[in-house]
Amino acid sequence: MNSPKNSSSNNPSRVISFVNAGHFIDHYAMLIFAAAVIIMGPALGMAYSELLPYATPGFIAFGAGSLITGWLGDRWSRRHMMVIFFVGIGLSMISVGFAQTPLQLGAALLSIGIFASIYHPVGTAMIVSYAEKLGAQMGINGVWGNLGVASSALVTGVIGQYLGWRWAFIVPGTVTVLIGIAFAMTVVHEDRKGSRQAAAQVRVAKEDMWRVVLSLLIVVIAISTTFNAVTVALPKLFAERLADLTRSPALLGVIAAGVYVFGAMTQYTIGKLLDRYSLKTVALPLSFLLAPFLYLAASLSNLPLIVVSIGIVMGAFGQVTVNDAMVGKYTTEEWRSRAYAVRYFVGFTAAGASVGLVAWLYDQGGFSMMLRAFAALCLLAIAAAIILPREIRAPAAQAG
Question: φ, ψ for residue 46 (rounded to 5)?
Answer without folding.
Answer: -125, 150
